[in-house]
Amino acid sequence: MRQFAAELENNIHIYRRYPLTLVSNFILLVIMFWGIFLGGMLVGNSILGSNSLTSLVIGYSLWVLIMTTISNMGQTIFSEAENGTIEQLFLVPKGASKLFFIREIVNLIISFAYSTIVLILLMLTTNRWIKFPLTVILPYFLALISLMGVGYIVLAITLRYKRIGSTLEVGQYIYLGLILFDFYNGDVWLKEIGNTIPLYPMIYWIKEIVNGEVKDQMNLISISIINAFVWLLLGIVIFKLTVRKIKQDGTLNKF
User: Is the pTM above the cut of 0.90?
Assistant: First the structure.
């Protein structure tokens, strides 16, 4: 519990230390949202006030959650390497796996708060105040589980390939396009692709709940549960195999 509190306090301290950067990031994210929305109006003839705006606000704010989580996980490891403390993480008495698990939880909490602020700013600037019923708790919880798996994969890739900042940035924007694309209103093969993308079924489910258009809920529940735990298990396995590999090769400190 002390370790959890220490990690949480450290993360909050970092944001407090650079308030101007934090505010600038929020402004840039809002501007980027409006660029996407106005571009969509020109291409798809969507109109302000339609359900497409609500879906975009939800999808974009959840992408911010994902982006923040992934960036923080990668940046944390890289900072540890630059400071020469990466090896110490694997020498802690309780083990590196437990330490990284605690960091994942703290990172999700911070990222959730960050994305919630972005969501409020988006609702304020669009004048579209979204009511989230209690039924969104389950898909949101499953989304966080799936995101933990993605976080472990990012940790593994960072430990293995070291400097991946540019790769992460490119991947984040590709993922934004995937989230905003409507796989479930296409052919069967498109739906199957959507089912395999981490968090996508849960994001689609949340959009449906908010818009009051939930169809085949039991199918969404089963797909979301499978998606969440498959990605979590996949992330844990990849992380453990990567840690074992870099220990065997002695490449942990070669950044």
Answer: no
